[in-house]
Amino acid sequence: MGLLLRTIFCAIPLIKDCLFCRSAIIEKHYCKVEKQIACVGDLGEPFSVGNLAKDDLTETGIPCVIYGELFTTYGETISQIESHTYKTEGIILSKKGDLLFPSSTTVDAMSLIAPSVINMDGVILGGDMFGIHISPNFNAQYLSYYFNHIAKRQLAKFAKGSTIIHLHYADIEKAKLLLPSLEEQNRMAKCLVTLDDKIKKERTFFDLLNSQKAYLLCHMFI
């Protein structure tokens, strides 16, 4: 039991260190590379999604992503779908490489600049969000990291509202961005995905250790 607890305590700082390292890598790379100007409108074709609420979710059915999950379930990348639905009326399906932005929040404007790239086709998208079909001239995976870590403050100023804060594609369409070349985007995206895979494995291991700890504690008092 003592060894198990020590292993758990070691796993926590490792995950935190990986997350800190990821942010540092993104920022340092961005500061060092040459950049070129592009507008949000240059990134690809915007699209709206259908209506989909929590009440429409089911245990099985068609894989789906609803707007609230962009805050609570997914990070920069959506590679495994957690929700399903049988709703088919007025649905919009994802294309691999779509960038999904939440459109409203009650927290703050910064929290809206948290897009996720979805890495699969045919997933139902719904709720208060908008998407961009990213052009082949840009790396959608890199853009997700870029918006989440570099451009948050810049784009947050375009959000509107007080109690409920909104962000629409039209609000940021003309915003100017400074982006690395496609070659640099591809290189950095590959590095960051590898690091995220490491973080995911460590979190899974941490969850397994916690489950084992709970099991052992339960049986110690039987």
From TrEMBL:
- What Pfam family is a match, any one? Methylase_S
What processes in GO biological process is this protein linked to?
DNA restriction-modification system
Looking at the keywords, is Signal present? no
Q: Write the record's keywords in alphabetical order, separated by commas.
A: DNA-binding, Endonuclease, Hydrolase, Nuclease, Restriction system
Q: Where is the Type I restriction modification DNA specificity domain?
A: 72-202
**Gene Ontology molecular functions:** DNA binding; endonuclease activity
Q: What superkingdom heads the lineage?
A: Bacteria
**Protein's UniProt keywords contain DNA-binding:** yes
Which family does this protein fall into? Belongs to the type-I restriction system S methylase family.
The protein depicted here goes by the name Restriction endonuclease subunit S
